[in-house]
Amino acid sequence: MMTFKLLILGFFGCFVQAMAAPQLAATLSASQIRPQTDFELRVSVRTEEEVNVEEPQWMVPEGLQKLGMNTQSSFESRLLPGPQGMQFEKKRSIEFIYQMQSLKEGRYKLGPFTVMVEGQSHQIDVVELVVTPQAPAPSRQRGGGLGGLFPPGFDEEEDSLFGQLLRRQLRQEEQETPSRTLPINEKEAFFIILETDKKEAFEGEQIFASWYIYTRGNIHQFDRLKFPSLRGFWKEDVEPAPSLNFQKEIVNGVLFHRALLASYALFPIKAGISVIDEYKIRAAVSLPSAQQGLLGQFGLGKAYTYTRTSQPLKVQVKSLPTEGRPQSFSGAVGSFKIEARVDSQNFVQGQPFTLKLQFEGDGNAKLIELPKLQWPASFELYDSKSESKFFQSGKSYKEFQLLVIPKEAGVQKLPPFEFSYFDPASATYKSLQTQEIVLQVAPGTVQAPLPSERMKLEEKPQEDLMILPPPETRSLARSWQWLYGWPLFWTWSGLYGGIFLLFIFGHWVWLKKLKNRRSLFDDLRERKQKCDKIAKSNQFSLAAAEVVNATYYLLSRLMDQDEFNRDLSDLLESLPPSVRTEVLEPLQKELEVLQTIAFAPAGAWANISSSADLRKHTDRAFQILEQTLRLSEEGT
Questions:
Q1: Residues whose CB falls within 8 Å of the CB of residue 507, separated by 6 or more in sequence, listed in order
Q2: Are 97 and 40 in contact (CB under 8 A)?
C-alpha cells in the first residue's frame, strides 16, 4: 500500500514538473519560398510562470541572410474549475522573430536552437526550408515589415474600418522610413556613425563631415565626452546640434532612431594622410525588453549607461598641381566668382571713396587674399579692411572694402582685378577678372597725407606751489567751533568724504591697470618663448598660429575686451590713434603673412622654406606687439 502511494506521488510530481516545464518551438512563415524572398523564423517559449529567457543561439546557414530580430511577449490568465475549486490558469509566451531573406536556391536546415530559460539550457530541433523558383508566390506577410509592427490578432481585424486605416498608416510609415545597410552590431544599445561626402580631396578642398547617433531605445542621459580635434583641417560649423532631434531609419532590417551630433565643413591643410578623429559619447539608454513588463516593451524600463566612440576616418589629401598655376593664385580652392563695385561714378579729387571687392562661391572664401594690383598714379590706396562669413549650405563670401583717394581730376579708370582659384571638380586652375571701372573725378583740393609720426603729448607746466605759513592753534580751534555750530557742517563733511572715497577708488583702478599692463609684458615674453620652441621643431603652421593667437589675446586684454567676440580688425581700430598710426600698418602686414602660414595650404607660402625665414616674421610681429604695449602704457 505504501509503495502504491509512493508511485502515485512520484507520477503526480513528474506530471506537475512536465506541466511546469517550458514549451519551446521553432516555426517558419513558409516551408518553401523563392530566391530573394523575405520570410520569418519564430522561436517561441511558453511557460506558466514569469521566467528569464535569453535570445536563442544558432548559426545562419550560408545562402540565407538575417535582416533583423525583434521580440514579442503575451500574457493570458483564465479562471478554470479544478480539484480544489476555481483556479487561475496562467500562460506566458515570448517569441523571438527573425526577419530572414533567401539568397540562392537550396535545401537548408535552420538550427538546432539553444535557449537558456532561468539558467537552464533547452534544445529545439532544426526546421527545414526549401528555396526553389517553383515555390508559390509569397503571400502578404502578417506582422512583418518594420520588425512586427502589427499586434497579435490583428489579422482578425482585417474587415474592420479601424484595422484597415491602421494597416494603411503602418504600411505608409514603412515605405517612407529610409533603409540602409551598415557594418554594425544591431544588438548594441547605440552607436555613432561618421558620414563624409568624400574620402579623397585636394589641399583646401571642402569636405562635409557629419556625426550621427543611432539607438534602438530611449536615451535618458547624454554626455559628450570627446569632440573631434580635427588636427590638420580648417574647420567651419555647418549645422550645430545643441539638442538631439531623432528620426526613424531602418539599419540592417532593424528600426533605429537617428539624430545629428555635429556637422562641419573641413578643409585639409597639407598633402598626405589626414585623420578625422573620433567622437566619444556616454549615454544612459533603456532598451525594449519583454522581461520588464508593458513599459519595458516600449523602452521605458531600466536604463543602462554605455560609452561608444565613432570610427576614425583617414582622408587622402592630394597636393595642388604646380603645372599651370597662375601668378595670381593665392590658395583659394573651390568654385568662386568675383565682383568689384563702387557706390557712385562721380567723385571729388582728394576725397576718399570706397571700392568693394567681393568673392563668393563654394569653398572657404576666408582664405582668399586681396589680389595684387598695380595702382595707377592717379589713385592711392589709403586703407583696407575685410569681412567674411561661412554659410550652412557650404557657400561662403569675403568682401574687401578699399579706401581709395583720387589724386587727379578728369575721367579716371580703375584697372581690373585678376583672381585665380583651383577647381577640384576639373582639377584645373581658373582665372577671373573684374570689369574696368570708369570714374568721373571733379577738381578739388588734394589733402596732405596723415602724419606717420606719433603725436607727442605736450608736457604740462609745473604748477607754482604757494607755501602758506602754519596756522595758529588758537585760530584753528576757533574755526572748528564755528563750523560745528554751522547748520551745513554735516552736508559739507559728507561732500568732502565722498570726494575722498572717489579719489581712493580712482587710485585703486589706476594701480590695477598699471599692474595689468606690466603683466602683459610677462605674457608676451612667455608666448614668444613658446613660439620659438615650436619654430625650432619646424612646425611652421603651429608657430604662426601661436603668434596670431598671441595678438588676439594681448590686444583683447589691452583694450579690456572679450577676445572671442571681437574681430582682429576691430581690435586694431580700438587702439588709441597715436598708437594705431605707428603699429597698424606693419602689424597688419606681418599678420597677413602669419595667417597664411597658419591656415592656408602649404603652396600658398612656399617662399617660407626654413625656420630662419619664419623667425623673421615671428620676431618682427612680437617686436611690434611689444612696441604697442609700451606706447599704450606711455599714453596711459
A1: none
A2: yes
Pairing of strands 254-268, 247-251: antiparallel
Share of the chain above pLDDT 90, in %: 21
The confidence band for 607, taking pLDDT boundaries of 50, 70 and 90, is low
What was the pLDDT predicted at 609? 65
Name the average pLDDT for the chain: 77
Residue 324 within any structural domain of the chain:
no
d(CA 314, CA 320) in angstroms, rounded, equals: 19
Residues 99 and 211 in one domain: no
Q: How many domains does the chain have?
A: 4
Structural contact between residues 237 and 174, judged by C-beta atoms closer than 8 angstroms: no
Residues 208 and 273 in one domain: yes
| Residue 190 sits in the same domain as residue 297 | yes
Edge-to-edge, what's the strand order for the sheet holding 428-433? 379-390, 395-406, 353-363, 329-342, 418-423, 428-433
Bridge-based pairing state of the strands 247-251 and 179-180:
parallel
Q: Are residues 250 and 272 both part of a single domain? A: yes
Give, for 412, the enclosing helix (H) or strand (E).
strand 410-414
Dihedral of the alpha carbons of 621, 625, 630, 633, in degrees to the nearest 10: 170
Which residues have a Cβ under 8 Å from the Cβ of 560 and sit 6 or more positions away? none
Cα–Cα nearest to 103, from 150, 34, 157 = 34
Domain of residue 541, residue span: 505-635
Q: Is residue 232 part of a domain?
A: yes
Distance CA 636, CA 631 (A): 9
pLDDT in tens, 47-66: 877 778 888 999 999 989 88
Band of pLDDT at residue 355, cut at 50, 70 and 90:
very high
Looking at the fold, whether 337 and 313 belong to one and the same domain comes out as no
User: What's the CATH code of the domain at 381?
Assistant: 2.60.40.740
Model pLDDT, residue 222: 78
Q: With respect to residue 487, please indicate whether it lies within any of the assigned structural domains.
A: no
The burial class, CB within 10 Å (0-12 / 13-18 / 19+), for 470 is exposed
Closest CA to 256 of 182, 310, 171: 182
Rounded CA-CA distance 22/231 in Å is 58
Nearest to 580 by CA among 571, 572, 588: 572
Instruction: Give yes or no for residue 585 having a pLDDT over 50.
Output: yes
Q: Please report, rounded to a whole number, the percentage of residues in the chain having pLDDT higher than 70.
A: 72
In this prediction the pTM is 0.46
Which range, of 137-141, 219-223, 318-322, averages the lowest pLDDT? 137-141
333 and 301 in a common domain: no
Query: Could you tell me the pLDDT band of residue 244, with boundaries at 50, 70 and 90?
Result: confident
Side chain identity at 579, as an amino acid letter?
A: V
Query: How many beta carbons lie within 10 A of that of residue 274, not counting itself?
Result: 22
- Other beta carbons within 10 angstroms of residue 50's beta carbon come to 13
Element (H, E) at 164: helix 161-176
Is position 575 within any domain? yes
Residues 68, 29, single domain; the answer is yes
Same domain, 342 and 410: yes
Q: Which of 292, 318, 344 is the last residue of a domain?
A: 318
pLDDT in the model for residue 597: 79
SS3 (DSSP) at 592: helix
C-alpha to C-alpha distances, 310 to 277, 380, 505, nearest whole angstrom: 8, 55, 55
